[in-house]
């Protein structure tokens, strides 16, 4: 739907300074996702980490003419044909516009909140109800203060039902989202400890979440949760409740029995004096609870028990994250078969563009029919074709009857269409992929996993999952602890601490990191080849490596006279001036760096030349994570302050100064420097125990075989372990060639299988190791976690007397990296 810019001004109660016929169809909060400038209204949001007002000039140059701002800059005076709608708060303005838009629709709207299960319930409700309604729902987990209004904005004249989820992380947030969603049907999913840190109690968090339901017609929840029931009474919501219970027959919906049978669960229920049952293809408790919430909604909407039963039986798992994998023939595969609606296609295309920093990769899209879109196929695929053209996709492969029928709407340089996935596979076209960034986007019924299996590079079943959302969270977590003008240098050396430097660097570049740092020039050259354009510091440059530094635009650390004089000589030979360097000062670490007493001589050398320019001066804290050495740390910082002042005074330009590392930012964030360096903290490891970071890397493998071994038998090479009792021993696909230190053998280490710890027994082998699964529900083929969310790298490192850095960087290159993102 479109609004005139005059209507937008009226909604916000602010004047529009330029008369015109501008029609707004896109609300934009991320300048990197610009698609149709003429129809875009940009909201300049201010956060702890960013001020989007600085991107207005860039957007104006690209054709955007309408902006919601909370302040003005003098240079905007030259933008005479632009509208600047000035408000007190741009985020509040975004929510106000979405709330106005929501009021235009007299349709049922389901609002979902809770601690866990929101997205699953939303997606399962879509699967259950899509035959009866044209549904608009939150894309992925767009449930934040920004995501909710952007989701609701999707409502249009064809919409018959809305399903939106809302998440909060601190008090007074839900009250802002309630008028935006304005649910007629409310659903509260499982309440847990997620995002509890900003609430004084679980009760306070529940009360806050219940704010979403104050104006709804009906509110659905589990009355067996007594704390929730008490909060409902306090909120005076009891007159509009639809409760379900496994204990009380007085509930509106009584769950009389739950029976697990193999891979399925049969749920018996009573509702309005009739009894019925349905089966779901899941057995875990979370899925059972989520299915019951969906049942209650379906019953309220008068879906027949027969319809409910048939649709519950074919519920599909919700893969809430897309992943990035290495493909054959130098391809990269973005696998996103989460859903196939038009909004998720736009999000996936945006993510593909984020990854398109290497200009040598052709952008390819493999797309299935879009199911249950609710609009005529001709209009649908015209809109999809427009999105694809705007995103710069160069090759489209369409699979399905509808998309094939409308293939003439697509104008990409290369295109081909097939009625079925089997037909595409049989054609052999997949064998021709070469240096392509391939986005797989298909509805589940098209089984695109078959395509993925053909084009994915197979290395080793063991894999390291790298959560890119967690990387972004940790990056912003540290940024929020700094003043907005302090630059952040992120470490991606040692292959991104084992996580994969290229994908980490692409993510950081997209999120506007200031600097990256690598150990050696070769690491920086590889990033340049992959399209990374951020400034790159090389921490350990070689004296004879100036040519490769210069050719790849890499900035060396200079730490002694030998390398300083060599670089000066080389710059003079080449006629280079003001090449950027970073001076390192040894303030007590005693590893690399000029000693303070060497600074006068070093400055004398620098002032006599023009080839090099000092961009920053820095030092390294020896023990910033330890309270025991705080006196030494403060002494280091004082030595550095004096040295940096001496260096800066020698030049007629400002020089960046940085000494804080991850632990330093955690413990001394009030110390004022121009830059900071983020290393291990970016990857989810807090050296000082600071809460709030997210786990980035999860190392997984599988059980190859399980045997029953009698007591007194020995396990593994060297017969180092003799069993003291009968045991079930599982052999897993991971050994010291994969990065498992041999010290973990003989019960010093452990793994996680189906939520239970299993000790490593016997000596670790090159490609395998054995674990004791006695008493654990484990089967051959089950997943084994070597480290991750519930088995921390810190815990593992401590068990063998090492540090998390070693555990992370030891993961072998033969272990496949998979990058995941919501």
UniProtKB/TrEMBL annotation:
Catalytic residues (UniProt): 493, 717
Cofactor field: pyridoxal 5'-phosphate
Keywords carried by this UniProt record: ATP-binding, Isomerase, Ligase, Nucleotide-binding, Pyridoxal phosphate
Signal sequence interval, chain numbering: none
Superkingdom of origin organism: Bacteria
Pathway in which the depicted protein is active: Amino-acid biosynthesis; D-alanine biosynthesis; D-alanine from L-alanine: step 1/1
Residues annotated for substrate binding in this entry: 591, 766
Record-linked Gene3D superfamilies: Alanine racemase, Lyase, Ornithine Decarboxylase, Chain A, domain 1, Mur ligase, C-terminal domain, Mur-like, catalytic domain, MurE/MurF, N-terminal domain
KW Ligase (keyword) present: yes
Reactions this protein catalyses: L-alanine = D-alanine
N6-(pyridoxal phosphate)lysine carried by residues: 493
Enzyme Commission identifier(s): 5.1.1.1
Alanine racemase C-terminal domain location: 696-820
Family stated for the protein in its record: Belongs to the alanine racemase family.
Biological role stated in the UniProt entry: Catalyzes the interconversion of L-alanine and D-alanine. May also act on other amino acids.
Name of the molecule in the record: Alanine racemase
Origin species: Proteiniphilum saccharofermentans
